Amino acid sequence: MPRRKEIKNNVTNDLISMATYPPTHFTDFSPENKFERWACVEVKDFAAIPADMESFILPSGLYAVFHYTGSSLEIASFFQKIYTAWLPDSPYELDNRPHFEILGEKYRNNNPLSEEDIWIPVKVKNE
User: Fold this and answer.
1) pTM for the whole thing?
2) How many CB atoms sit inside 10 A of residue 90's CB?
3) Residue ranges of the domains in the chain?
4) 125: which of 13, 69, 108, 113 lies 20 to 30 Å off by Cα?
5) Quick one: which of 86, 114, 113 has its CA closest to 101?
6) CB 15 within 8 A of CB 30
């Protein structure tokens, strides 16, 4: 966040919290599993990447999008419902692409009125 203003070609003011997981992260789930977290913004192009920052091209594909309202301190139970209730009952399964949250104008971190959109990569089962 301290260096956010160095990025000059933002498409929006939204922040993106993105996670990339190893292929077996969810099939062999453990709280100790390692994954990579990115703090991102969408940009028009990669012409001027600030020093010590990296570009990332999000692979295309189908996403299930969930709107969450509430404190970030309570979001774990929301994610648990997605993975243990919604996903198994849906015609989809997880796809091995980045997961991300869009933290827009209504995002307020630990505020119970905070809002964000959660994007989970999916594919049709038995694809």
Assistant:
1) 0.90
2) 13
3) 4-124
4) 69
5) 114
6) no
